[in-house]
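Dear colleagues,

As part of the handover before I leave the project, I'm documenting each prediction I ran so the next person doesn't have to rerun anything. This entry is a single chain, and its sequence is reproduced below.
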Amino acid sequence: MTKTYQRPDLTIDQRLAVKTAAANLRAEFAQTFGVETIERFLHSSYDEFAGRATVTNYLPLLAERFARQRLRALAKVQGLSTDERPTVLFLCTHNAGRSQMALGLFTYLAGEQAIAWSGGTEPGNTINPAAVAAMAEIGIDISTEFPKPWTDEIVQAADVVITMGCGDACPIVPGHRYQEWVLDDPNGLDLAATRPIRDEIARRVLALLDEIGATALHTITTH
């Protein structure tokens, strides 16, 4: 029997949404993890976003998406996953601009050949609108993404960790492959100033795909 998630600030609709999210995750991971582990990851993910969310309607959905990512990472770390695709983690400070553009580009270009995640050492509240607009110009929609932290299991599950300006705050796991991409931070910049950053990220993502043995499935037209 599962426990009801107790938070005094949850509305009835949010409680129902969290209950549905838990059911979805249990259906996906029942053969891998126990109910307590699944719900612990969901509830801790919810708490992570609830502390800084400006719009609470989507909290259960965000928590479910992040918990799913974390559980897949944990399965890989514990040798419980049969997915052998290379995994890349993009990290920056706020997970609102550079790492989100890199995630969007990598996912678009790699397709199902590899897995990509992103995170921030100090996650912001929303995605940088200039980054969203710059990516939309090249046909990639990152508007539904959300700033999120890195967690131990996500870092440990990554085969390649790309850091972008988070310095000493970036996590270091011995034996993992790291790259530091020196890029301007688009925070506070307009669309015109963000385009060159996007284009440089695209160039580096293409090179990264080649390094991990993946083929770019699309052609990127930059400005």
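The helical segments are 12-29, 35-50, 59-77, 98-110, 129-137, 152-157, 191-211. The first strand starts at residue 87 and ends at 92.

All the best with the project,
I.
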